[in-house]
Protein 1
Amino acid sequence: MAFTEKFHCDVCSKAKSEESVDWWLAWTEQLSPTPDTPTMPQLRFMPWNTLLSHEAEVRHLCGARCAQTLMDRWMTSGA
């Protein structure tokens, strides 16, 4: 019996297919510009990577529109 992974967009719930090419990953990291300043959150995006897609904090995005929606929500949430 073969194992099948199912990924869904965290914004619109669209299922990722084998033919999908425009999928992205996003996550939040803490950044300190200099050693003596407090950390600040930053939102990071990268093209789909199967290995990184399994990380718990990573969000799956089906394209630019959902990436922009996630960024808008993140910016207005007070991150």
Note: The radius of gyration is 15 Å.
Protein 2
Amino acid sequence: MRVGLAYNVKPADPPPHLPEDAFEEYDSEATVGHICDALASLGHEVRRLPAGRAFVDALREARPDIVFNIAEGEGGRCREAHLPAVLEMLGVPYVGSDPLTLAVTLDKPVAKKLVAAEGFPTPPFRVFRSADEFTALPFPCPVIVKPAFEGSSKGVRLSSRATDYGQARDMVRFVTDTYRQEALVEAFVPGAEVTVGVLGNDPPRIAGMMEIAPKTVPPTEFVYSLEVKRDWENRVSYRVPPALPAAALAEIGRCALGAYRALGCRDFSRIDFRLDARGVPQFIECNPLPGLSPGYGDLPIMAERTGVPYVSLIREILSHALSRLGMAAA
């Protein structure tokens, strides 16, 4: 088949006026190359389709049978929905979730409301447009403060965990001033952090679970922040499977599949949880565009440690999309 790969790459020289993590969600050229190589090794003709204003012209020239979408988009809380919306308008099949799912999952408060409405636990939260709005909370500190619609730990720092209202207000100001969007203030969940890879559609399956275990602080203080992700080899251990009781893993899996369905995910996603003081998994967020960098992205790490080679992971993701679309690989 002719497969188009839609993507955004980190700029070599980002504008200095933007936050240091402004392009944290974007992929490296190396990651794009790995995915292209994997698709080519499966016998497909691969065409690169950089996201942006020139995307439509590139798409028309490439004329792919299907687009493998990993593009994060540019600007606004609906940015991840831009490219699949264009593909739907032009009638081009693509891999991954649709525009609605990509929009609601990037907006963390909306995703939490949808998941909670289906009966899956999520920490209590409030959203603030400015620090001036912040007066009190209906739940106690500690809390974690983060941008309401970002991914890849953008805007999440070690200081994002606030132990009193003054610190929380300061972090609300940091988020709203720096990222020009609402701040999500969420009750901090003190237990293990677990991310779950989910693949497929009818039915979806748990592809792996990974515990992000801190090396330098207790779990009760751990924040999977930008600083930690950039220095993960020294700061965390990735445990596949998590060092948790079988009953806890089963419940995490149940909640992951439930959230996947509630949010309308397709083909592949990664869903994050933290366990509360009673061991109950609390939904944190869902990423339907999880990183696919081998050796670095959480989903490829889970696959590798469960005996699934990188090329096989890419094959399965594409296969689920083709099956969903009623297409056969040439």
Note: DSSP finds eleven helices and 13 strands in the chain.
Protein 3
Amino acid sequence: MTSEDSSRTPPGKDVAPQPLRGFRDYPPPEAGARSEIRRRMRAAARRAGFRELETPSVEPLDLYREKSGDEIASQVWAFRDKGDREVALTPETTPSLARIFAGRAASEPLPVKWFTVARLWRYEEPQAGRTREFLQFNLDILGVGGLEAEVDVLAAAGLALDAAGAAGLYAFRVNDRALAEGMGRALGAREGVRFFRAVDQFRKMDRSAFLRELETAGLAADSARDLADLFATVGPGLSAATLAGFFDRIRDWGLDSAALAGADRLRRLATMAEAAGLGDRWVFDPTVVRGLAYYTSSVFEGFARSGDGRALFGGGRYDRLVELFGGPPTPAVGLAIGDQTLEQLLRSAGRWPDGEPLLDFYVVAMTPELRAEALRLTAELRSAGRSVDLDLMGRSTTRQLREAGRRARRAVLIAPRELERGVVLVRDLTTGDQAEQPRSSVGPWA
């Protein structure tokens, strides 16, 4: 029996059923922590001028054929529905976004700045930082042909990552596919897709394997060695200040005009990124090419400054995708941040939240006779916009306060003598400070 089969085995009498391989449960407080991260990132996207878009969880399979590339197409969860149509669980949102925009292009003011938070599915081998069901946070800008779009989407990604708690832990690797393609042509690559695949895997394979892949793509042995030597000197990436040195090294390769245009875009992008306050997080990396077929020029990844973990996000410019869905020529750029790698990064740095934020109040009825009053006060506080809970189990005052200390920032104690005087006690559960507050209105103290 394979590991895939074992996950489908009916449970025994005393065995609880488990999630399928590659899927995870998120009970409290984990689900609350994940929700808090999404809340922070949504707020950051809105601060950067992005509006939220929702896309379907199931799309026609043709949406991904020829549009996302072989890698995504091979990982899609595809099936025939009850109408005998070929459909797929959504593996990424960009094709859906392009389809939606194509139908609204005539009436949608430009630029369009949309973000999505979507549950996605890919049938790939589960491992650390990779599950078959996951959440992705996307930022996309449509209608801007200039590099301002790349800078703005990276700046918004920085806001979102910082809001999530990752400030100082990440940087952006940036490249241009036109430059990468031109380098391949100059070195004699005959198989462009294979050349890109080799370059994309440079940091994940040893030198001999990399050389073999390049030679299979058409490079002569000496050209393959030259490229491997060049990439080896780059390390984790080159800052904007050292970008010129890289171009000096490849000046004699005979790059064509398209490649030179890509190099010029990178120079200008570095200057603009510095002006936008991203200079401390921007590095040039010629090994970043991204696997999806629809990218047209700029490509980028987010990565952890420490360690060799998977990319925190990936993205780039996709200027021809909207036309594939019948829309007008529309320049576009976007990126996607995965939940699993971000969680790994935050946990490793001790910045993962414990759960959702603490409640504002926990209402404590100090005698059984005051439970009805606790219900009334809880309803009033909730109506005033506060997060509030109370005991539903008939616990003692001591146990109620213990629960309050675990779940809330403040406790509201309803005691018989104080209530007769028209007051309640509000206790700060961090400092232990306590003060009387009028019961007549929750407004002044809520």
Note: The chain has two domains: 18-348, 359-438.
Protein 4
Amino acid sequence: MTKKPSRPSPFIQYSSLGFQILGFMAVFGYIGHYLDDYYGLKTPYITMAGLVFGVVGSMVYLIRTLNRHDE
């Protein structure tokens, strides 16, 4: 008789999502900051765009992850 693997608790499943959202924002914010410095921009337009892209990307990832766990 094979034992079915148990799923971790919902708290453990979803606790890492906050760190992943911060990770998305940190990576894209850093890339934007680097590009602002590289191009010598005085206003951080690319950094702001990178942070927005990080937020949108993390929300898409969050929604897809939650939908996958609901199935």
Note: The chain is about 80% helix and 0% strand.
